[in-house]
Amino acid sequence: MKKLGLKIFALLLVLSLTGCGYNKFQSLDEEAKASWSEVLNQYQRRADLVPNLVNVVKGYAAHEKEVLTEVADARSRVGSIQVTEEVLNDPEAFAKFQAAQGQLTSALSRLLAVAENYPNLKADQGFRDLQAQLEGTENRVAVARNRYIQTIKEYNVAVRSFPNNLTAMMFGYDPKPTFTVENEKAISSAPKVDFSETK
Description:
mainly alpha, 76% helix
């Protein structure tokens, strides 16, 4: 009789776990990790292009030392951040990672703007190839980030929805941070356009 009671209890426990969302959390957590890996893969691809791009620009615009140094420093900061799975669960670490990537994006934009001042550089096939690869990588980064955002949205909805939120609390599944707009205040106001000529 006691063995039958234990079997029934075990069966009820298994059935309750399948209906409480535990398996869903396992699946969503793995999807989040896979999406995050793709984001990191694309950011690494971009970081790998940076030294080649800097070297090509340096050959034509060596006196643009400040911009070249900014790019090298930003890439170094990105490389110094230890990216582990824990970044997914730590909003502060995630924000640092996002800030470092944003600094690299900004520095690369300034580098490409400097390149506009050098017709010979813009005509260089190596530079054009690297620029095309960088643009393609930026598109891949945007796609990977979007997939990650969608995955985290689904995960966070599951963590916060009843009755799954009870299972989430019991097993320590917390909402995960996601990418945000870096300067929300700046983009919330419309840009001012003035076509009047200054004399």
